[in-house]
């Protein structure tokens, strides 16, 4: 079967006197039958080309599914006299939300069964749930398309009845007031999907009576609404990439006026919680790596901010949690997470100790103030996800649950490490890696999958994956490149990988690939790259720069048509990301983005084998970006290597819904890698 050919219709695009010809601009026409036909043809081409692997794909799927405990549940946490948890039952794709009153030995109440709600639907996702303080009414948000446009539903937890009230076309973000009747929620712009309005809805009333509380008019900002841990305040948090602004309201007075905490200032970021008579604020005010301050509720403006944890040049303040007797702080230094305990009485604090060389640790769900117990999470490349309770006085650590790997898992059969690669400008970039000891070859001929992201300040921590065992057990090394653009080594690590320094992200990744080859972990003929979304941009750019480094690349929902997207303010996310990529209406940014934009830099040359995935209903990376990219690659590339596009016609940015359906897509990706290995 021959690969599909897309028709060429020249579209001339001109900016700053520079002209670009886009032959595939027409693929933006979502309702055009020719577009749908092309996507279906690409899917059929992939299916036919890999038909010989269908049995292996099914084997991988069953293998990965078989490691997951089907009748599983989260560790319950105590809140408002109930233990709350989520569980799955054998054969169920979707979760059941449960609670027990007063004791874990009490009768279980399933207050939301998503399996029942999803019956007969090709996609269904519950984005969030919230229960009123009197514990009588549940609000939950559901998406039935995958475009992250939700509808709020209500359920009477005393009668079990789904109420008639519905709020359509919302973001999935909401918070209850303390009157147990008023729900604050956010709406998105119907065209750009930017979250820009906050409404209040009174249970039992028509949505036509909903009150617009706040509208964010600056197109670079979006807003969310949430409640403080104390339940005393509702916060509206407006945020751009470089600035924040918070308004607060007494949650027991939902018809009152919101008060501005601190007006937005360019490059001032802050986030707040409440305890006693102060707001506690994480901020970058004179603190690139952030610091913790407090401010009196009666006068919370900037001039009244008092340092609690000062700024440190080598430590990034990531998060904090407040208890009646302790302040708990999540920090990052030298690329690794730390959790520090600080008593309010002034006595000496201490840190939790972790043994793995590379790992992830985080403050987990802690809704209660008056407790000496801290719930935290931990995993590593070799340690399954683990939930702990830590007694902050006795320092006793209790493992509540570790992810069970059905069929058994021997951590000692695998090893993980952290190594460092020298970037082109001399900066040292960390790499986390894992492999199975008895399949590793010291001669450098190991197949290796190098994963990365490198944008928005998202740190790409070392994490455990039971599905990844299907790679490791067959001889693969798995590595994560902690490149600039993330916050892995502090805020400066992010600042040095954005805007006019974005090329550092790409050259860091290339340096990591070269280092893994030089250190004989792999060779170019056995090296594979993988990234998704902005990580897909990374894939597209590095394969333009160094196609010789990789045998194969998987780009998932890739952001690759950067110039055109960032010039189109009607597309979701564009305006809010000018401070990440730059605004190409500015000539300097236009030329810089154009220099690396994957779609604009496709050339007539040989490329690696490629698998590119997409979602027709993707609201974050529009389906046409990977589709156009594939069409242009088919037109220009000079090699005969594999090029596949797989579009999920029923899903969006996150892929298939349900805990097992997504494994079918992962099985396809892994099959692609093994298929290429057989061809080496």
From TrEMBL:
Pfam families: Peptidase_S9, Peptidase_S9_N. GO terms for biological process: proteolysis. Residues 4-403 form the Peptidase S9A N-terminal domain. SUPFAM superfamilies: alpha/beta-Hydrolases, Peptidase/esterase 'gauge' domain. One of its GO terms (molecular function) is serine-type endopeptidase activity. Keywords: Hydrolase, Protease, Serine protease. It comes from the Bacteria. InterPro entries: AB_hydrolase_fold (IPR029058), Pept_S9A_N (IPR023302), Peptidase_S9_cat (IPR001375), Peptidase_S9A (IPR002470), Serine_Peptidase_S9A (IPR051543). Residues 464-673 form the Peptidase S9 prolyl oligopeptidase catalytic domain. Belongs to the peptidase S9A family. Cleaves peptide bonds on the C-terminal side of prolyl residues within peptides that are up to approximately 30 amino acids long. Has an absolute requirement for an X-Pro bond in the trans configuration immediately preceding the Pro-Y scissible bond. This is Proline-specific endopeptidase. It comes from Algoriphagus chordae.
């Amino acid at each position: 079967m021959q690969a599909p050919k897309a028709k060429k219709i020249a579209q001339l695009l001109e900016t700053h006197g520079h002209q670009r010809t886009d032959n595939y601009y027409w693929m933006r026409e979502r309702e055009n039958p020719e577009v749908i036909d092309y996507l279906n043809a690409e899917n059929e081409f992939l299916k036919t080309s890999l038909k010989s692997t269908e049995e292996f794909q099914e084997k991988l799927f069953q293998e990965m599914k078989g490691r997951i405990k089907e009748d599983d549940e989260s560790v319950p946490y105590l809140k408002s006299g109930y233990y709350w948890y989520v569980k799955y039952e054998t054969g169920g794709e979707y979760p059941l939300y449960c609670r027990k009153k007063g004791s874990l030995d009490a009768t279980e109440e399933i207050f939301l069964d998503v399996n029942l709600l999803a019956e007969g639907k090709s996609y269904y996702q519950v984005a969030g749930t919230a229960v009123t303080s009197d514990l009588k009414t549940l609000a939950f948000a559901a998406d039935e398309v995958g475009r992250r446009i939700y509808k709020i539903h209500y359920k009477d937890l005393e009668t079990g009845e789904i109420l008639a009230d519905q709020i359509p076309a919302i973001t999935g973000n909401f918070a209850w007031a303390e009157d147990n009747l008023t729900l604050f929620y956010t709406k998105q712009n119907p065209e750009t999907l930017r979250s820009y309005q906050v409404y209040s809805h009174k249970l039992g009333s028509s949505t036509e009576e909903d009150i617009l509380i706040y509208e964010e008019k600056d197109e670079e900002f979006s807003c969310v609404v949430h409640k403080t841990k104390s339940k005393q305040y509702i916060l509206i948090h407006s945020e751009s990439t470089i600035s924040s602004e918070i308004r607060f309201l007494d949650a027991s007075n939902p018809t009152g006026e919101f008060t501005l905490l601190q007006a937005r200032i360019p490059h001032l970021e802050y986030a707040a919680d409440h305890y006693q008579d102060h707001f506690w604020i994480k901020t970058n005010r004179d603190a690139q790596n952030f610091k913790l301050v407090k401010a009196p509720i009666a006068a919370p403006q900037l001039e009244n901010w008092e340092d609690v944890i000062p700024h440190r040049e080598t430590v990034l303040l990531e998060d904090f949690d407040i208890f009646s007797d302790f302040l708990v702080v999540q920090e990052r230094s030298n690329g690794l997470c730390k959790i520090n305990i600080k008593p309010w009485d002034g006595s000496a604090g201490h840190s939790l100790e972790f043994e793995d060389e590379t790992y992830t640790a985080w403050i987990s769900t802690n809704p209660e103030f008056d407790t000496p117990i801290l719930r935290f999470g931990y995993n590593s490349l070799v340690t399954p996800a683990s939930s702990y309770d830590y007694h902050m006085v006795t320092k006793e650590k209790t493992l509540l649950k570790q992810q069970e790997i059905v069929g058994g898992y021997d951590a000692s059969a695998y090893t993980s490490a952290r190594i460092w690669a020298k970037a082109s400008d001399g900066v040292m970039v960390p790499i986390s890696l894992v492999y199975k000891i008895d399949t590793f070859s010291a001669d450098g001929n190991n197949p290796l999958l190098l994963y990365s992201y490198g944008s928005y300040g998202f740190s790409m921590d070392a994490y455990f994956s039971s599905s990844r065992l299907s790679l490791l057990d067959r001889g693969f090394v798995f590595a994560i490149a902690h490149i600039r653009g993330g916050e892995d080594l502090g805020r400066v690590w992010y600042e040095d990988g954005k805007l006019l320094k974005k090329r550092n992200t790409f050259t860091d990744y290339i340096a990591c690939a070269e280092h893994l080859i030089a250190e004989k972990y792999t060779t170019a003929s056995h090296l594979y790259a993988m990234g998704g979304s902005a990580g897909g941009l990374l894939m597209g750019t590095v394969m333009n720069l160094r196609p010789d480094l990789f045998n194969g690349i998987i780009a998932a929902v890739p952001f690759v048509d950067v110039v055109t997207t960032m010039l189109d303010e009607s597309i979701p996310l564009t305006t809010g990301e000018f401070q990440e990529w730059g605004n190409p209406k500015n000539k300097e940014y236009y030329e810089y983005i154009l220099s690396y934009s994957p779609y604009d830099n496709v050339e007539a040359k040989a490329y690696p084998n490629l698998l590119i995935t997409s979602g027709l209903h993707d609201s974050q990376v529009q389906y046409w970006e990977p589709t156009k990219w594939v069409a242009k690659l088919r037109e220009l590339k000079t090699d005969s290597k594999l090029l596949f596009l797989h579009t999920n016609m029923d899903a969006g940015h996150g892929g298939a819904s349900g805990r097992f359906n997504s494994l079918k897509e992962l099985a396809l990706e892994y099959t692609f890698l093994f298929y290429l290995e057989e061809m080496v």
